Amino acid sequence: MAIFGKKDEKEEKIIPELLPKHVGFIMDGNGRWAKKRGLPRTFGHLEGAKNFRKIVRYCKDIGLKTISFYVFSTENWVRPADEISAIMDLLRDYLDDVSELLSEKTRAVFLGDKSVFPDDIREKMIQTEKDTAEYDEMTMLLAINYGGRDEIARSARILAERVKNGEISPEDIDEKAVDSCLYTAGYPDVDLVIRPSGELRLSNFLIWQCAYAEYYFTDVLWPDFSPRELEKALIDFQGRQRRFGGV
Ligand code: IPE
Ligand code: IPE
Ligand code: MG
Q: Domain containing 86 — which CATH number?
């Protein structure tokens, strides 16, 4: 309505100052995308990977600083072996193409235990982190073999070791200490978590970091989650009232 011209404008455009500091993406719905087309699930993962690249570029274009993606969870290992192997091959392809990250000046950091991966994948992950470590315009956190509970348990283990070695005492273990031992140490908490595909859950994604996140759910499947869909999510986010327990 013209009378609310200003308000409409605010609602329809991304306002750079109101961009979330950290957006988390749960890339779900690849399998259903393929099934709808009568294709094997692996085709869905291929399309999902293409879309991931598109969304990363868009995030950079609009000036997001920290983005995270749920790529493969600690629970996803129960899937059929051929599906897991197809996902690992897509990961290999992506890691082979580090030039894309270099040209986008994007830092890549992997969240999760890398030790379980085949040597070639683990080495490529470490190399990619090294090759992009200097970039500070945008950081992309890739949660692979990642689980939120696993991450918190790991943090507890690290702190317990420090107590055992006499470096700290139990009283030193506060929220800041736990936070500093997470894979995401040094990065802001998630402000906005986006989950396509119609599921209304976190599925163990950044559960500590999402304590005060805003949630955006859509029925659109991940391979169809376009830059326009992300724009809608960001516009929705900027209209939310966050109180963090205050009034
Ligand atoms: C997300 O898509 C990708 C991974 C979990 C690796 P899904 O494979 O879970 O797709 P749906 O949920 O079966 O449609
Ligand atoms: C969450 O999706 C994991 C990733 C997107 C990598 P899932 O498809 O594994 O989640 P559930 O099983 O539906 O909760
Ligand atoms: Mg799924």
A: 3.40.1180.10
